[in-house]
């Protein structure tokens, strides 16, 4: 592997249709070799080298997802690269001086990186949304929903927020509503069964989660429920005729 082979170029090669792309498994090996080339840097908690590498790694994945159409096979190839990363031999790496994480099994910093991307995304903004931003947001939501479907992410909270923004909030511009609904639809397409499982669990236990508080148009309990799911279906139908 050449020294200049960055994560971005590795992912581009994996997504390339012609000439023949490298496989997700080969891409994962190249990524791991690149990040682990200097074992001393990765194990040095004082200079946070591992943390910096990993933040940039996940940003590179998100950027690749935002450049890949939401319905393109490349989205699944990106997910498969992460699946293949988790299969590689494990070693421990220190992050934030808090504890050691298992690289690659635990995919350290992926969750916080996604939260940062969600906080920076065009979620429920009152102003107009640029077309390029809306397209990128839908693609990132599609990628993240596929991570849930592949078992890489273990909950649907990010999807819940995207759906709530689209269907429960008021005051969005037309472009903001279009952007939010398109992103929400990706979660329904790729993770519906996970939402239905969460609904069954939360209804059986009665548990609530303050992070699931309703938006302006929904005043039900702070959880997923059959009633909320039906409300969302009605809202999708209503908005389908308005967009």
Can you walk through the features of this model?
The protein is mostly helical and 243 residues long. It has 2 domains: 1-109, no CATH class; 116-243, no CATH class. It is 61% helix and 4% strand. The protein contains 10 helices and 2 strands; from the N terminus they run H-H-H-H-H-E-E-H-H-H-H-H. It has helices at 7-15, 24-36, 39-43, 49-66, 73-87, 110-120, 131-149, 157-167, 174-205, 226-240, and strands at 91-95, 99-103. It has a two-stranded antiparallel sheet with strand order 1-2. Strand 1 (91-95) and strand 2 form a beta hairpin. Helix 5 crosses helix 7 (131-149). The longest helix has 32 residues, at 174-205. The protein is globular, with a radius of gyration of 19 Å. The protein starts with 6 loop residues before the first helix and ends with a helix. The mean pLDDT is 90.
């Amino acid at each position: 592997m050449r020294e200049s082979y960055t994560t971005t170029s590795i992912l581009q090669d994996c997504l390339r249709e012609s000439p023949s792309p490298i496989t997700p498994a080969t891409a994962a090996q190249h990524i791991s070799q690149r990040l682990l080339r200097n074992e001393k840097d990765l194990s040095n908690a004082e200079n946070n080298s591992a943390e910096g590498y990993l933040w940039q790694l996940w940003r590179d994945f998100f950027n690749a997802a935002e450049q890949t159409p939401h319905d393109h096979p490349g989205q699944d190839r990106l997910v498969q690269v992460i699946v293949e990363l988790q299969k590689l031999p494990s070693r421990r790496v220190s992050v934030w001086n808090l504890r050691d994480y298992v690289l690659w099994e635990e995919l350290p910093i992926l969750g916080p990186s996604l939260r940062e991307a969600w906080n920076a995304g065009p979620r429920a903004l009152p102003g107009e949304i640029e077309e390029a931003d809306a397209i990128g947001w839908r693609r990132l939501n599609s990628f993240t929903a596929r991570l849930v479907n592949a078992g890489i992410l273990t909950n649907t909270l990010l999807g819940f927020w995207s759906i709530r923004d689209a269907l429960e909030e008021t005051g969005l511009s037309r472009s903001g509503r279009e952007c939010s609904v398109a992103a929400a639809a990706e979660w329904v397409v790729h993770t519906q069964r996970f939402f239905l499982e969460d609904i069954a669990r939360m209804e059986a236990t009665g548990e609530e989660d303050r992070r699931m508080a309703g938006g302006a148009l929904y005043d039900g309990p702070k959880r997923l429920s059959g009633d909320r799911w039906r409300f969302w279906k009605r809202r999708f139908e209503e908005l389908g005729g308005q967009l």
